[in-house]
Design goal:
The chain is mainly beta. It has two domains: 133 residues, no CATH class; 146 residues, AttH-like domain (AttH-like fold). The protein contains no helices and 17 strands. It has a nine-stranded antiparallel β-sheet with strand order 12-11-10-9-17-16-15-14-13, with no helix packed on it. The relative contact order is 0.14. The model has no long low-confidence stretch (mean pLDDT 89).
Length: 280
């Protein structure tokens, strides 16, 4: 693990722009979001992000490489949520959302240095929480919550655990996505920790994870080499959110003994409750 420098300017939109600064337009084929100097467009299978913020400039195209995994729920379960004409007075209730992996190309520039992405990897999450938004303080308590992604030529995976009480995930093989769910079928275990000299926190940096499917099992050892972090103020407490870049050694073993083994880039988000404040 390395004490890598990172750029972090503002946690929420309101930290640096007024409420209402985020604008969107949509038609049957394209959705466009604009905020300050950043634009993102979506066709449903292709996303483009371009612009600059905090001295970082991006121009990235992302193409879907699997199917969306609805880890929160199907959007048909939402009630009174006008997705075409959202309103501040909406009675929208329910939760829905999913993630999908993608291949990314483009450029990222900072301090006169440009990184060219000829075949990088990305993840897109869309999420709606109407009526009541959970604070996540409880989900990130104890050992915390982990979101873990890794990508390869034939195989990618996403595993998610929250304080060992909840676990789910997906494995995408040759463009087809399969779901693994429940603590018996999906797990992330920390096997190495590091004292972060910047935050002065003892944090995980090495893990094992697995996902069991009907026709085989995925196992990976994931080792981080760089991090950034920010504080996430929530109702009733504070969460420290770490994001890691990492390497993964991933193997999928079919029930017939056939294997797929890849060395992969990986990305981890780690949410840990720093304190809980009781309301008086």
């Amino acid at each position: 693990m390395h004490d890598t420098p990172f750029v972090n300017q503002g946690q929420d939109i309101e930290d640096y722009l007024p409420v209402g600064a985020l604008k969107s337009t949509a038609n049957d084929s394209l959705v466009t979001y604009n905020i300050a100097n950043v634009t993102m467009t979506s066709t449903g299978t292709t996303w483009q992000a371009y612009g600059s913020h905090a001295g970082v400039s991006v121009n990235i195209t992302m193409e879907v490489s699997g199917q969306e995994f609805l880890h929160v729920g199907n959007f048909s379960q939402l009630s009174d949520c006008p997705l075409d004409t959202p309103s501040a007075n909406s009675n929208c209730t329910g939760s829905a959302g999913g993630i999908v992996h993608a291949v990314a190309t483009g450029t990222i520039s900072f301090n006169d240095t440009t990184l060219v992405l000829d075949q990088a990897y990305s993840v897109h999450e869309r999420l709606i929480q109407g009526g009541s938004v959970p604070s996540r303080i409880q989900n990130s308590d104890g050992i915390g919550a982990f979101w873990m992604h890794a990508w390869g030529q034939r195989l990618s995976f996403f595993t998610f655990t929250a304080d060992t009480q909840y676990a789910t995930g997906e494995v995408t093989i040759d463009g087809q996505t399969y779901v693994s769910s429940g603590v018996a079928n999906t797990s992330i275990e920390t096997i190495g920790s590091w004292l972060d000299p910047k935050s002065n926190q003892l944090i995980p940096y090495k893990w094992t994870t697995f996902a069991i499917l009907d026709f085989g099992r995925m196992d990976a050892t994931v080792t981080a080499y760089g991090r950034l972090y920010y504080y996430w103020v929530r109702d009733g407490g504070l969460i420290i959110t770490y994001q890691f870049v990492a390497d993964a050694e991933t193997t999928f073993v079919y029930t017939n003994g056939t294997t797929i083994s890849e060395e992969q880039p990986a990305f981890i988000e780690y949410f840990r409750t720093f304190y809980i404040q009781t309301h008086q």
